[in-house]
Amino acid sequence: MKYTRPEEAKLKQRLAEPVRFINILAGPRQVGKTTIVRDLIPPNSPQGFYISVDEEAAVSPFSQSSNAVSPPQKRDTEWLRYYWHEARNRASKWAEIRFRDSATTQSDPYIFAVDEIQKIKQWSEIVKGLWDEDRANGLNMHVVLLGSAPLLIQKGLTESLAGRYELMPVTHWGFGEMQQAFDFSLEEFIYFGGYPGSAALIHDESRWRSYVKESLIHPNIEKDIVQMVHIKNPPLLKQLFELGCHYSGQELSLTKIRKVFDENAHVGTLADYLQLLTQAKLLAGLHKYAAKEIRKRNSVPKLIVFNTALMSAIQDYTFAEAQADRSYWGRLVESSVGAHLLNTSDGDTQLCYWRDGSDEVDFVLVRGRKLAAIEVKSSASPSRARGLEVFVQRNPSAKTMLVGAGGIPLAEFLSYPAEHWLG
Prior knowledge:
Layout: H1 6-15, E1 22-26, H2 33-40, E2 48-52, H3 77-102, E3 110-115, H4 123-136, E4 141-147, H5 149-152, H6 155-160, E5 165-169, H7 175-182, H8 186-192, H9 205-225, H10 234-246, E6 250-251, H11 254-261, H12 267-279, E7 283-286, H13 293-297, E8 302-305, H14 308-314, H15 319-324, H16 326-344, E9 350-356, E10 359-367, E11 370-377, H17 386-394, E12 399-404, H18 410-413, H19 418-422
Parallel strand pairs: 1-4, 1-5, 2-3, 3-4, 11-12
Antiparallel strand pairs: 6-8, 7-8, 9-10, 10-11
Helix pairs in contact: 1-2, 8-14, 9-14, 10-12, 10-14
């Protein structure tokens, strides 16, 4: 039985509503964005038109285009204009069909979806003009745009399309989804992570590792970041990502990172690259929790991967070796918790860590005045969490929780989103 992500039902509900906003599906590679839309717009659907910048547009028997000009071969703004006009013609044809069948053109709006939209230069300005024309003409056509997170949540949305869109983040798959769709055990999820495309390969670890590197890591960095954003030093970006995978779950200052790579590398450049990796949903650098924002920004980052598959693919440990090395397994467990919190936190929730001398807390969730301090224990026997005790002494309103032995079972913790644990 095919597994359907919750985001599909959410998008379906929005597309059943009157046309108000452009729907934006943004997220990292291979988390199911295209599958969600293709499920809602099957091939040759009379009610929808799907195109991808990476593929040839399908010819539909419902097309009534009056444009005798062949579609542009170059995937640029003229290509987008051409197919937007084609979608308008198809939407008009659909309205005629609905009018004959139900005597109304107001129900069941037409759906036009464009995949990999970020690959078209100046896409947002063109979309703005075309969308505004459609609104002025009362065209009953939903527009769905799909793209990778770092390239959509930038100037195009915040400037050109401000007030015209609703964003639907599509994140990495969680434990519950991988368990339901692929029967992953908790240990398999911790090590192999949440990429559905690689799930069938986990029993051939060499093949699995190669797939993650070649089909996920390299395209994310070399195509989605390096080719779309001006990067002065691409090798440095790649080195920073690989180092982050090795040190996920640990604090590592940018000054030390600079010394490892290149004494001439600027700390500000490394900070910018880490921010790009965060926007790409690959690697985050968590700030240390502090009451004053300036102290947060100046803190040593704690590195956390967004998907433990990235960590396991870069490291030399096999699945069995990772479980046998309790110290390394502990970092994998902590990284899986951090990744879960990163992927399920909404825009109003911050994820930090806390340390004062030898006292530390693995993760701190912050939302307004709400605080939740989380300590992760991967050992089988319960142990005292002194860091939580000290933290709550200094922050009496904070909610504290221990994940693992003696506390909330890890599988249970990974089954609820971040805001659930804020209470």
